[in-house]
Specification:
Pfam families: Dak2. Keywords: Kinase, Transferase. One of its GO terms (molecular function) is kinase activity. This is Dihydroxyacetone kinase, L subunit. The longest helix has 22 residues. The chain has 9 helices and no strands. It is mostly helical. It binds adenosine-5'-diphosphate and magnesium ion. The site of magnesium ion has 7 residues, from loops.
């Protein structure tokens, strides 16, 4: 995968954030402050605008500009967390082209950025509960010799399952932790958006592969 994939991924994130804006707002209304859908919609819209204005020449350029834009346009916890994720992801990319192992390393690096920044462990009902299983699934596929599209598809499926699995959890990090036991029974908005963003990565890989 190349720069075209990274650009398609960010465009896909923007489309997903926009399409699922109300749903993410609703999830955040129940256990947070109703802004997650708005935050990621605004953030990725700004990312796409910046990418269109700037001639990014590599995957690294695209991911770095994405990180910078998310950090400066998204208020709330998710801006710095996703910003750090994309910054670490950028740093994980070695050369011009990404292979299956590189895609797994990218997801692992994103997860590491989020945990370094937010100090949440798995099971605390945050976006980590989607990124962590995604990273494991990606690594498993890459080790089995899978290419980028299959690695990312496995990661996306695991992220979606991880997001669903936040429903019975008690939030102990972030705004939802103020609710304590009352956070049980609701999906974490950041885990839900993560599943959308990783699915966008997989869709972009399939599209670039076929196109
Ligand atoms: P805010 O909580 O400031 O309103 P958002 O609504 O945009 O910001 O994002 C909320 C999401 O951020 C949560 O659903 C959760 O997934 C994620 N989050 C919050 N705190 C942390 C943390 N310390 N580590 C990882 N993710 C976190
Ligand atoms: Mg919020």
């Amino acid at each position: 995968m190349n720069t075209e994939w990274a650009l398609a991924w960010m465009k896909g994130c923007a489309e997903q954030a926009h399409e699922h804006r109300e749903e993410l707002i609703e999830l955040d209304r129940v256990i947070g402050d109703s802004d997650h859908g708005e935050n990621v919609d605004r953030g990725f819209r700004a990312v796409v605008e910046k990418l269109e204005a700037d001639a990014s020449e590599s995957i690294v350029d695209v991911l770095k500009l994405t990180a910078k834009t998310l950090m400066s346009t998204v208020g709330g916890a998710s801006g710095p967390l996703l910003g750090t994720a994309f910054l670490r992801a950028a740093k994980s990319v070695g050369g011009e082209a990404l292979d299956g192992a590189g895609a797994a390393a990218l997801i692992e690096a994103a997860l590491e950025g989020i945990t370094t920044r937010g100090k949440a462990a798995e099971g605390e009902k945050t976006m980590v509960d989607a990124w962590a299983p995604a990273a494991r699934a990606a690594r498993e596929q890459a080790d089995a010799g899978a290419g980028v599209a299959d690695v990312l598809r496995a990661a996306a499926d695991a992220a979606a399952e991880g997001a669903e699995a936040t429903i019975p959890l008690v939030a102990t990090k972030g705004r939802a932790s103020y609710l304590g036991e009352r956070s049980v029974g609701h999906k974490d908005p950041g885990a839900a958006s993560t599943a959308l963003f990783i699915a966008a990565a997989a869709d972009a890989a399939s599209a670039v592969k076929e196109g």
